[in-house]
Amino acid sequence: MLRIPKNKTPLYLGLVAEEAAAQFGANTITLDRTMDALPEVGQVLTVAQFADLIAEMANRLWASGIRPSEHVVIHKTNNFDITLFACAASRIGAVPVMLSAHLDGDTINALLQRLPSPTLLTDAAKLTGSLAASPLAELTARVISVTEPVEGAISLSDLAGAPERTPVTLHPDSHAIMTHTSGTTGIPKLVVHSARSIGARYRWQNIPVSLLRQREPILMHVSYVHSRMYPGIASMMLNNKPMVFLDDAEPAKVADAMVKYRPGVFETHPNSFLECESILDDPRKPFKTVRFYNSTFDAIHPGTMDKFLRASERKNPVFLQVYGQSECGPLVGRPYTRKTVMQADGRCQGYSTPGITKYRLVSRNGKPVTRDNPGYIDVQTSGRALTYYGEAERFEKQLDGEWWRGGDIGYRTKWGCLHLLDREVDQIPTIHSTLEVEDTVLHRLPELTELIIVPGPEKEPVPVVCTKDDAPLDLARWKRAIADQSTMADPIQMKLGELPRTATAKIKRLELARRLADQVTHELAS
């Protein structure tokens, strides 16, 4: 079997806006709120302005004492300026380490300890809030506040007017940026990417963007600390596509933005799509102009895709579902239309991309891999990360030569389509696939906004349900919907906002299971 060739086109994050500005400087970037660090810039800026801001911030970071190959931890209130600072750090050859605004102080402390004398770039809200008790003087070389001055921190505004610096480009296989895993199984791992590996992801992500013939706005709500963001914005800038970025995916705000900007493309996390089902009936028809929907983080329910496709008034809208991982980027994908989406198996993730990605199935028990005997999903891509920072042995345990084993299990259909059944750690012995059951029941009960099946104290399946407007679950309808499914415990109803989530809005299944177990233990003790 041929190996995936090495990517020959690295992507340097600190230079891509400058490159795009040379061709499409008037293209626009629209924000749903002003940048925390630079509110005076407003909510609309051109690509040329963005490139100038990156250069200016890079000059300030150099003036603070940061040098090439040093780590710059970016952990601040969620806002588009996170992207600006990542590109600025990259421009001087530093390594931006992207830590979600949703991580708590203890987790940030643990991640800072893994790095040798990093710079922490943050804001006053974090320094006086979740990081107030952190021993930052011991954990960092310096702290920079990008908003109001805070005692003990360098103020970014004091560095204005710093001398101009020439951009620094490191070797394409050097550490270029770090993101973190979802943390669904504990403290997140720091994933190290190079300019070459990010460039490979750009090649994949540029395919659908380059196929967009009309110059319509692309509206995105994507985590600014996720590796998806950087090849994504590069592709939009280099293809001259107007961009709209949302900090907040609260459904009412999404509806307002969709009506205001009328994008041709809408991308967000699978769980955000699920939550936005509540605005599909908005009389303003917020999704009527959407030609392409994009979900690149996890499996999404066919019923949800169908609802959004029907909410569009375009002739042939498409929903592109992509399966990927933090360590590898996008791996397989498949487009769905109104005609095909409800005929599809919800576990179908799609097909690999020749010359860019491929996968194989490896038996867990020596028997052939089938639907009833799923195997490990191994993948190969030139977009694979270099390592886990400070945990190289942990990374290497998942390698078999060029192949990466990400912990998911599934099978291949006779047509070559990859079907994902579960993460191995989420498997429940009495259920073939928790994800499959969730797809089925969600389709049967449209009043549900979420269903997560987790293992109980005796490994029994425990369904956790959320309903529209938190209405009480109709138990009779529930029992009819699950009559042909594996035996499960009684459902536990929760509010959608109570579910523990990752930076990309995925449900932390293991944490949810632990919470439920702790609740049972507490009730028994009392």
TrEMBL record:
Specify the domain of life of the species encoding this protein: Bacteria
**Ranges for domain AMP-dependent synthetase/ligase:** 20-389
PANTHER family, per the entry: LONG-CHAIN-FATTY-ACID--COA LIGASE, NONRIBOSOMAL PEPTIDE SYNTHASE PES1 (EUROFUNG)-RELATED
> What name does UniProt use for this protein?
AMP-binding protein
Q: Which organism is it from?
A: Streptomyces flavotricini
